[in-house]
Amino acid sequence: MEAKPFGNPVLVKEGEDRIREIACIDEALTFLGTWPETRRGPIYQTAVRACRAACEGSMAPEKARSAFAGFARSTGILEKAIVTLEPWKIDPKRGRDIPI
């Protein structure tokens, strides 16, 4: 089966200090499959149905991503995007004298 990627990955917290990137429908379904049964409510079921529908081609991957992100948000595991800039990618401010 061909992996159906999300346009942008969803970042979810796994434990205290680990963040996992969910980049496609297969990864989302795998993650949902490990979710504790005692915590599987209606939002969980909606995310699973959306991901399965996207796998079958009856729903766009971005709609499944939205359902998965909604599940992650509702359970408190959604992580905001991490943005880092490498020092060599930052342009120096113009007009500023910097000794070499």
Strand order of the largest sheet: 2-1-3
Strand content: 15-25%
How many helices? 3
Overall 3D form: globular
Return the domain count: 1
Mean pLDDT metric: 86
**Unreliably modeled segments:** none
Topology as a string of helices (H) and strands (E): EEHHHE
Residue share in helices?
Answer: 25-40%
**Gyration radius over CA:** 19 Å
- Derived from helix and strand composition plus strand pairing, the structural class reads alpha+beta
Sheet of most strands: 3 strands, antiparallel
Distance between the termini: 56 Å
Q: How many E strands?
A: 3
Characterize the quaternary organization of these chains: single chain
Keywords:
alpha+beta; single chain; 3-stranded antiparallel β-sheet; 100 residues
Describe the structure.
The structure is a single chain. The protein is of the alpha+beta class. The protein is built from 3 helices and 3 strands. Strands 2-1-3 form a 3-stranded antiparallel β-sheet. Helix 2 runs antiparallel to helix 3. It is globular.
Structure at a glance:
The chain contains three helices and three strands. The chain has helices spanning 25-33, 42-56, 61-75; strands spanning 5-13, 19-24, 78-79. It has a three-stranded antiparallel beta sheet with strand order 2-1-3.
